[in-house]
Design goal:
Helix content: 40-55%
Strand order of the largest sheet: 5-4-1-6-7
Structural class: alpha/beta
Strand content: 5-15%
Shape: elongated
CATH architecture of the largest domain: 3-Layer(aba) Sandwich
CATH superfamily of the largest domain: HAD superfamily/HAD-like
CATH class of the largest domain: Alpha Beta
Number of domains: 2
Number of strands: 7
Number of helices: 11
Order of helices and strands: EEHHHHEHEHHEHHEHEH
């Protein structure tokens, strides 16, 4: 079954990432009108998502654009990463781990500079799948078709053999347009069932693949 492939998104799929309200809290703390942080930082966020700016430069822009001192930058960045990294979707992660050796496994994630180090330290996604393709490392974000091409190339698989899982419909549609099968993540049960169907594991969709 190694010719089959499953590629997953991270945020909202392998990570549970509800909004924490950190932006609003910082705007209140700094006496800024609502929306100011993202308005002033929008081009920096976009640059960081495709690797056109370093993490150190992001910190410098936060300081200059929001009027922060070094300690405030450190605290704001910690709040940002707390929301970004969320908490692990343990059920889905355990299911994917049980697929190791039965199919090729990959990750394709729109990301931000500095995230590989943090997600590796916290979640060890590098041990869960064979290859992780981050947008900030390839300079391309979903739903650009080249992002899906890069993910398939990293695993040396044809798009038609892959099932892509994402929590944004636009990315699911783009994956389908790129020749992949795709599933919109809404909950673990339906996602696990869809993966099981893709791998032809029959009606036992709620549990891991039988081993052996």
């Amino acid at each position: 079954m190694r010719e089959s492939c499953v590629i997953l998104d991270i945020g909202g799929v392998l990570e549970i990432t509800p909004q924490t309200g950190w932006v609003q809290r910082w705007e209140e703390r700094l006496g800024l009108p609502p929306g100011t942080v993202h308005e002033r930082m929008d081009d920096v966020w976009r640059a960081g998502s495709v690797g056109r700016i370093s993490e150190q430069d992001v910190h410098g822009e936060l300081a200059s654009r929001l009027g922060l001192d070094a300690q405030q930058v450190k605290e704001l960045v910690a709040d940002l990463w707390t929301e970004y990294l969320g908490t692990p979707n343990e059920e889905l992660i355990d299911y994917v781990r049980a697929l190791q050796g039965h199919c090729k496994l990959g990750i394709l994630s729109n990301s931000f500079v500095g995230v590989r180090e943090r997600e590796t330290a916290r979640y060890r996604f590098d041990e869960l799948v064979e290859h992780i393709v981050y947008s900030h490392e390839i300079g391309i974000e979903k739903p650009d078709p080249r992002a899906f091409e890069a993910a398939c190339a990293s695993l040396d698989v044809k798009p038609s053999s892959c099932l892509f899982i994402d929590d944004y419909a636009v990315n699911v549609e783009a994956a389908q347009a790129a020749g992949m099968r795709a599933h919109l993540f809404e909950d673990n049960a339906r996602t696990i069932a869809r993966i099981a169907a893709h791998l032809d594991t029959g009606p036992r969709a709620a549990g891991p693949l039988p081993l052996g």
